[in-house]
Specification:
Elements: E1 7-12, H1 15-31, E2 35-40, H2 53-58, E3 65-66, H3 76-97, E4 103-107, H4 111-120, E5 127-130, H5 141-151, E6 154-157, H6 160-170, E7 176-178, H7 185-189, H8 195-202, E8 210-214, H9 225-238, E9 243-247, H10 255-266, E10 272-275, H11 279-289, E11 292-295, H12 298-302, E12 311-314, E13 327-330, H13 334-345, H14 361-372
Parallel strand pairs: 1-2, 1-4, 2-3, 4-5, 5-6, 6-7, 8-9, 8-11, 9-10, 11-12, 12-13
Helix pairs in contact: 1-14, 3-4, 4-5, 8-11, 9-10, 9-13
Length: about 375
């Protein structure tokens, strides 16, 4: 049987997963006749988090499905209520549209992504999961990620290690594809801005005197987040040789707490810039231009090596993930952060490659979907 045009839906809940989806969306748009519908929810519709649905529209994509699923706050109760709200909001979408989709693509490990997928389970919708099999010991995301794996039919993983874990979870090696990290396709396809262009387009300074910093709350031991924020703020105040470009935390437990602490302590400093959202090209240009990265974002694990950057990974949020030798795990303690900054500053650029770069992940995903769904 020959190839047929597919009806595909893509779930995106934040600036982070949209950046990963971007090369796949472009590949669908420019190289196929498949019909793709974007379903945007979560912080994409949040003014506080930059209303990042506009970034999707600015990139030339339609967003026919816009789902209001935002939590009212950042307490555990607020997030639990938001999960229930997400399922309630999505159920009518799946009832009226689910049978039109040959496959719905979901990504990662977020609580809102879990809720959106779980709400579709009674409707028998086919899901393809990207970035399954991974582990993050400092966040509750493992439970969501592995649950999404169980609820999905097709799997696109970033390494053979994760393919093995998905096969163990599913009890089968079928329909599991090792494609590498999808977001790395951006490194080949995008032309990054110079530091001058970053200043022009995003009004931020970022060059080799700048540390790119993102620190999200840990959700396994949420009671530690306030102290962690104090330790990081103290270290930033003590580091005089670098400027900082800090992207603010996402919508997790204590996300608003950390956000407010960073704003209160750092927003008045000339050498610290706090930003909500740089967009895909802006953030990757910042990675391209910065001295190195500091914090606990997954982009430090998956993408920084492709830009030749070392990463000081703080705490346990990303602990358990496979990573290259450019990543240094450091406790969230002021003295340890200062020592790590001194260490990394003396190393220069990383030139050991990226273990997640297998090349052409977007095309591999499209070809696999065409084969599976023909």
């Amino acid at each position: 049987m020959g190839r047929r045009d597919l009806n595909v839906a893509i779930l995106t809940s934040s600036r982070a997963d949209y950046s990963i989806w971007l090369p796949l969306l472009r590949a669908f748009k420019s190289g196929t006749n498949h019909r793709v519908e974007i379903i945007a929810f979560g912080t994409h519709l949040s003014q506080q988090h930059g209303y990042t649905i506009e970034a999707i529209l600015d990139d030339g994509f339609d967003v026919p499905h816009r789902m209001d699923t935002l939590p009212q706050g950042d307490s555990p109760e607020d997030l639990a209520i938001a999960m229930g709200k997400t399922m309630q909001v999505f159920a009518p979408l799946w009832r009226t549209n689910g049978n039109r989709f040959d496959v719905v693509l979901c990504l990662g490990d977020r609580y809102e992504m879990f809720a959106a997928v779980a709400s579709a389970l009674p409707f028998g919708i086919c899901f393809a999961h990207v970035h399954g099999g991974e582990t993050t010991l400092g966040a509750i995301d493992d439970a969501f990620r592995h649950s999404i794996t169980h609820m999905s039919n097709i799997h696109f993983v970033s390494s053979k290690i994760y393919a093995k874990r998905v096969s163990e979870l599913k009890g089968s090696v079928d329909r599991i594809y090792t494609v590498g990290a999808l977001g790395l396709d951006n490194v080949r396809s995008l032309t990054f801005w110079t530091s001058e262009e970053l200043k022009k387009h995003r009004n931020v300074h970022c060059d080799n005197d700048t540390i790119l910093c993102t620190f999200h709350p840990e959700t396994v031991h949420a009671e530690r987040n306030e102290q962690y924020a104090k330790e990081l703020i103290g270290a930033i105040l003590d580091i005089k040789d670098y400027r900082f470009l800090m992207t603010l935390p996402n919508a997790d437990t204590n996300g608003n707490l950390l956000r407010n602490m960073f704003i209160d302590a750092l927003s008045g400093l000339e050498r610290v810039q706090l930003v909500e959202n740089l967009g895909t090209i802006g953030y990757m240009s910042a990675m391209h231009n910065c001295a190195f990265m500091l914090g606990n974002t997954s982009s430090g694990i998956a993408e920084a090596a492709s830009f030749g950057k070392y990463v000081i990974d703080l705490g346990d949020r990303q602990k358990g993930r496979a990573h290259g030798l450019n990543v240094l795990h450091v406790p969230v303690q002021g003295d340890a952060i200062l020592a790590a900054v001194k260490d990394v500053a003396a190393r220069g650029n990383w030139n050991g490659g990226n273990i997640f770069d297998l090349g052409g992940a977007a095309e591999k995903i499209i070809h696999a979907l065409e084969s599976e769904l023909k």
